[in-house]
Amino acid sequence: MTSTPSAAARPSAPARPGRRALFVRLRDVALVAGAFGAILGTTLLARADTALLNVSYDPTREFYKDVNQAFAAEWKAATGETVVIRASHGGSGKQARSVIDGLDADVVTLALAADIDAIARETKKIPADWQKRLAHNSSPYTSTILFLVKKGNPKGIKNWDDLIKPGVEVITPNPKTSGGARWNYLGAWAWAAKEYKGDDAKIRAYIADLFKHVPVLDTGARGATTTFAQRGLGDVLLAWENEAYLVFDEFGADKFDIVVPPYSILAEPPVSLVDGNVDTKGTRKQAEAYLAFLYSKAGQTLAAKHHYRPAEPAGVDKALLDRFPKLELVTIDDPVFGGWAKAQPFHFGDGGTFDQLYKPK
Amino acid sequence: MSIATSSGRGGAGRRRLVHGVLPGFGLAMGWTVVWLSLIVLFPLVALAVKASGLGFGGFVKLLQDARVQAALELSFGAALIAALVNAVFGVLVAWVLTRYRFPGRALIDAAVDLPFALPTAVAGITLAALFAKTGWIGGLLAPLGIEVAYTRLGVVVALIFVGLPFVVRTVQPLLADLDREVEEAAATLGASRLTTVFRVLLPPLVPSILTGFTLAFARGVGEYGSIVFIAGNMPYLTEIAPLLIVIKLEEFDWVGATGIACVMLAISFSLLLVINLIQAHANRRS
Amino acid sequence: MATDQTFPLDPPRPRALPVPPPIGETVVARWTLVAIAGLFLALVLVLPIAGVFTEGLRKGIWAYFKSFGDPDALASIQLTLLVAVISVPANLVFGVAASWAITKFDFPGKSLLITLIDLPFSVSPVVSGLVFVLLFGAQGLFGPFLAAHGLKVIFAVPGLVLATIFVTFPFVARELIPLMEAQGAADEEAALTLGASGWTIFRRVTLPNIKWGLLYGVLLCNARAMGEFGAVSVVSGHIRGLTNTMPLQVEILYNEYDFVGAFAMASILAGLALITLVLKTFLEWRFGDELAANRRH
């Protein structure tokens, strides 16, 4: 490079006005930026008033949006206190990890009991027997796994064994990264266990065959839904019941059909108070009322509206209840699985049945 | 962060090893080292400490795991291919943008940074939509039997997208700075245009091309957000190493996750160091 | 290089930048190169971005703008700006200091230092978030200390800033190093012999020389700071209206099947390119005469 010593020949000479102006301008920019930052900072702080934080999983967004509004109104009417409920949504496992790492949730409403177990185990902020504290295994609502197919069901999919017919492509997310996908997997396993009368080799062969029909493993349930509904990939989507109906509403009922298999799994997404956090924040009263609200008539009706099966359907409008298709449901506590504590490591742990499917022979 | 200010003169004691007459080495070096330690080294040491829970045997087992190997191969291989593509086309784009006037140049010049500004997830979703069998480009390629989305090729495409700005933006300022007299001299001396380009113009650009290549490569190795949407995420096939880390985390296996992270870090570090040493060597010779 | 000369020997050519090449390719070769570059960019850059805007505008311009009225969306824009306003200057100062030390002096271990600066790029965003969780999370090294003093780093603004600084760490430094390396230290040394102080040298000699590199570095750094998703996602906690940055808000909207809202938000980030354009045009206009002078000396 050629250099021009003249460049600095007059270091003490008056700076060119233009360049000085640039520096003045830069200083101004810095000042403005600083002031801006300060304002932002204070607004953010001002917003952090007493509030409940509900850390939940992905498909409950719409449901809890309504619940939060309804509860805030009810609480205001009953006590005169304004309570703001903040929501955080994400993959169930990731959300549990955030709470473990210090996200100060007042209540957790996750997809799997195993995730709340992990919080209890790692932080001691929740007692180990949390699931016994609230009715119905701490699950105010339940769901199941159904099939979503293209309009008219061109591949004639009726039951789990139709999923492994030649030429059928199945969309389901990765059970390792998605809570919903674990229910899908267990649903298939439950059907196979019943169909093949507990013959382990045949069950595994069916599951292995099923996942050969899966062209892409999205990391989350909503990602898989988009792959199927918007991108038009695959012939059948294994989905939460409420998700399947949501797709109906969002993407148009003229494009898809819901297929109800005769046999599926009863998914119980549990809720819990995070005792350690509410006691630090002094929000126990509100948080307990929030969870109780989920079991109330209003809460159960909202659940049914969003296609979650209410645990206490007694007070819920019959028209809402009639929308739920009837099918035989098996729970995670069935001997086939033996509860989450056993099923989780057996199927989805490192080297579990799911990992074995992909092991090269 | 303000703690760092007071220790700004940390490097002053090393003057004898340092060559250079300009002032400010102590301040500049001190700040560099302090900031680097606080933001980068310290957190990475914490990572290594966590991973050390694996023990030596655990690391060996991790490295021998076929699935981990396949994922590492994919992450590093795809990053390498994408960085090479970007090195070639990045220089071309930088050249065109600095040397020629054509309609829309300013707009394209500004748009080069977009792969950074777009959240990686958006990039991934959009690319998957474009390259899926039902998308604009995927639909054109499907009859030719080329599948991009949900294959390894999809990973490369995503990485080309996220790495594009690096090469363009490192080469561009140098290209703008390049002395045209040298070119003129070469032309006057009868060198053909091609000779001038390859013998006169390109050599001074090599360090910056290499820098851009290195950065694009490094970025590609760790990329997660855009790839998981376009890769299909099939174990042994289209599963990238960062996804394996996420999977380990989902199993609440912090130690295993940090273990894979450390292995990736060690490989990247060695590769980057080799490239930077080559570059330092080249700089010294010129 | 940059000069203080105010009276160029021939009249300045302010707008034509760079000077039409006296030497160069034939018209055919030139257009072929432009075409190849254009095709490449169309494929990997323009089409994806067009896709973003198409999705954002799918339900018309009204729906597009309506999606910004949401208080959570506004909060996320504020938060993103706040994070960028803190992290970009931090990395700017670091980048200038590091490249000054690295390019103007010779010392052992230089390649190692550069490699360490590069390192954050090769760290997966997932991990860059994780390292701060390991340090400041409730189970982390400083977790008990922070909890005892009621301080929050993770799942609050400080965590978002730290993660952003980490992922954008190398940008300014790496942009400047090759440029300053190529320029050498001769200009500065000349200024030194003429008695200029260190700060004056930097301000009057170095800064004008590196301003383009600096600009690109800052632009890249800013773009990435605002667009970062993975690392921020790990330390954010995803609390609506509180710790969601724009990229996280995009994810939320997308996951709510609000594609218009998601892509509208993403398109604002794409709109950063327009700011780039304005800034560059401004600088070219402001320093145009000086650049023209540079090119001719």
UniProtKB/TrEMBL annotation, chain A:
Presence of the UniProt keyword DNA repair in the record: no
Pfam families: SBP_bac_11
Gene3D superfamilies membership: Periplasmic binding protein-like II
GO cellular component: periplasmic space
Molecular function terms from GO: molecular carrier activity; sulfur compound binding
Gene Ontology biological-process entries: sulfate transmembrane transport
Main subcellular location of this protein, as a coarse class: periplasm
Subcellular location: Periplasm
Taxonomic superkingdom: Bacteria
This protein's UniProt keywords: Periplasm, Signal, Transport
PROSITE patterns assigned: PROK_SULFATE_BIND_2
Protein family: Belongs to the prokaryotic sulfate-binding protein family.
UniProt-recorded name of the protein: Sulfate ABC transporter substrate-binding protein
Organism phylogeny: Bacteria, Pseudomonadati, Pseudomonadota, Alphaproteobacteria, Hyphomicrobiales
UniProtKB/TrEMBL annotation, chain B:
Biological source species: Siculibacillus lacustris
Regions that span the bilayer: 25-49, 70-96, 116-137, 149-168, 197-217, 224-248, 254-278
Main location: membrane
PROSITE patterns: ABC_TM1 (PS50928)
Keyword Iron: no
Topology term for the membrane: Multi-pass membrane protein
Organism taxonomic ancestry: Bacteria, Pseudomonadati, Pseudomonadota, Alphaproteobacteria, Hyphomicrobiales
Gene3D superfamilies referenced in this protein's UniProt entry, alphabetically: MetI-like
InterPro entries: CysT_permease (IPR011865), MetI-like (IPR000515), MetI-like_sf (IPR035906), Sulph_transpt2 (IPR005667)
GO cellular component: plasma membrane
Similarity comment text for this entry: Belongs to the binding-protein-dependent transport system permease family. CysTW subfamily.
Alphabetized GO MF terms: ABC-type sulfate transporter activity
Keyword set, alphabetical order: Membrane, Sulfate transport, Transmembrane, Transmembrane helix, Transport
Keyword Transmembrane helix: yes
The name this protein goes by in its record: Sulfate transport system permease protein CysT
Pfam families membership: BPD_transp_1
Automatic annotation (TrEMBL), chain C:
Residue stretches making up the ABC transmembrane type-1 domain: 77-278
Entry's Gene Ontology cellular component terms: plasma membrane
UniProt cross-references to InterPro entries, sorted A to Z: CysW_permease, MetI-like, MetI-like_sf, Sulph_transpt2
Residues that span the membrane, as ranges: 28-53, 74-102, 122-146, 153-173, 259-279
Gene3D superfamilies to which the protein is assigned, alphabetical: MetI-like
One GO MF term: ABC-type sulfate transporter activity
Protein topology in the membrane: Multi-pass membrane protein
Keywords of this entry: Cell inner membrane, Cell membrane, Membrane, Sulfate transport, Transmembrane, Transmembrane helix, Transport
Subcellular location: Cell inner membrane
Function, as annotated: Part of the ABC transporter complex CysAWTP (TC 3.A.1.6.1) involved in sulfate/thiosulfate import. Probably responsible for the translocation of the substrate across the membrane.
Subunit structure: The complex is composed of two ATP-binding proteins (CysA), two transmembrane proteins (CysT and CysW) and a solute-binding protein (CysP).
Entry-linked PANTHER family: SULFATE TRANSPORT SYSTEM PERMEASE PROTEIN, SULFATE TRANSPORT SYSTEM PERMEASE PROTEIN CYSW
Protein name (Swiss-Prot/TrEMBL): Sulfate transport system permease protein CysW
Species: Siculibacillus lacustris
